[in-house]
Amino acid sequence: MSTAGVWIAIGATAVGCYLVKLLGLLVPAGALERPLVRRLAALLPVALLAALTAQQTFGGEGGALVADARAGGLAAAAVALVLRAPFLVVVAAAVLVTAGLRALG
Amino acid sequence: MPERNQTTQSALPAGVRPAGEGTPPTASPAADRGGDDRAVIRDALGVGVAVGLSGLAFGVTSAGAGLSLAQTCALSLLVFTGSSQFALVGALAAGGGPLTAAAGAFFLGTRNAFYGLRLSSLLRLPRAVRPAAAHLVIDETSLVALAQRDRRAARIGFTVTGITLYLLWNLTTLLGALGAAALGDTAAWGLDAAGPAVFLALLAPMLRTVAERATAGLAVLLGLGLLPVLPAGVPVLVAALAAPLVLLVRGLRAKGPDGGEGR
Q: What is the domain range of residue B81?
């Protein structure tokens, strides 16, 4: 990706994310409080985070699906989450196991 | 409310839990105000420090994804909502177009509008302050503010968490990006696993109800299934449709013979 393209992405994200933050503080209460809208707002991050986790774990070159060292790292992170480890320990587990598997492979 | 605090609770990031757990203010309302203020400030600093450190992971991931130091720092300074930042650099690294990548990050950030809505009635900020305060409306500041008993405590909690987190998040982003540059090939160090691990840690506490688990499962299937056939960055946007689809199915089921409100 070109440098300009990255800056466009950064600018668009910054403006978009700021405007939704401001929107919440400015609109009259009740406008976003409809039950359907609230449920959708609660489920949308679930869908996005699940898809992103899967894609960044199993996505390879050109959209191919691969199971490599990252899958082992994510399995370690999942175990850490089940053991209620703190956030940074979860991330560290994924990184260390991925690095370890690559060193062995 | 059939689903109490759904938006707030399900967006609770894992990073907040260690600091937030068991730390709601317990002093009696009659206790002296100085002591109350100190308790709120202590809670706010704890959350701010714990989550601010995860900026290290972002700095490393962003640099590993090929973004420059200036680009990485600009994201933390200007976007300042962690999951959107991770999503954006991940999508760019995968070869997504700028606007497609920004769209995924934007959709992740929409939940902040709902925090803002609840904060605006809680904090009653003067209009002149709102544009600046809006930048600090994120998971952690909202959760700290909403956990307080009165407006004064909520305002203190929001402000202290927001400023602590903003300073630390940006400082640790810078350190992470510099560290990644010193490491060279970040993939050899397993650092490409940091991004998905962050997403998993954010996702885990959201998977409580059947609807949430069904949404996650469907999103994984759509996200992976479409990865080989659609341009980079687009599959995740299609996978977001899992949320309205699950709500639709649930709504149809709820409209049974008795027309009862289903879960």
A: 6-190
Mark yes or no for CB contact A95/B120 under 8 Å: no
Q: What is the number of residues in chain B?
A: 263
Given A5, A29, A46, which is nearest B216 (Cβ)?
A46
pLDDT reading at B91 higher than 50: yes
ipTM of the complex: 0.89
Q: Which of residues 195-224 of B touch A (CB under 8 A)?
A: 195-204, 206-207, 211-212, 215-220, 222-224
Euclidean distance between CA atoms B219 and B201, whole angstroms: 17
Q: Which residues of B touch A55 (CB under 8 A)?
A: 90, 94, 223-224, 227, 235-236
- B177/B211 same-domain check: no
> Cα(B34)–Cα(B38) distance, rounded to whole angstroms?
6
Quick check: is B122 in a domain?
Answer: yes
CA distance B206 to B229: 29
Q: Are residues B69 and B17 in the same domain?
A: yes
Residue B116 has pLDDT above 70, yes or no: yes
Whether residue B261 is contained in a domain is answered as: no
Token pair of B88, please? Answer: 């954006």
Residue B38 lies in a domain: yes
pLDDT, averaged across chain B: 82
**Is residue B179 included in any domain, yes or no?**
yes
How many domains are contained in chain B? 2
Question: Is the CB of B107 less than 8 angstroms away from the CB of A44?
Answer: yes
Same domain, B88 and B170: yes
Judged against a pLDDT cut of 80, whether residue A28 lies above it is answered with: no
DSSP-derived 3-state class of residue A65: strand
Per-residue model confidence (pLDDT) at position B206: 86
pTM of the full predicted structure? 0.77
Identify from B114, B138, B183 which residue to disrupt to test chain A contact, counting A C-beta atoms within 10 A and taking the largest count.
B114
Nearest to A88 among B54, B118, B220 (CB): B54
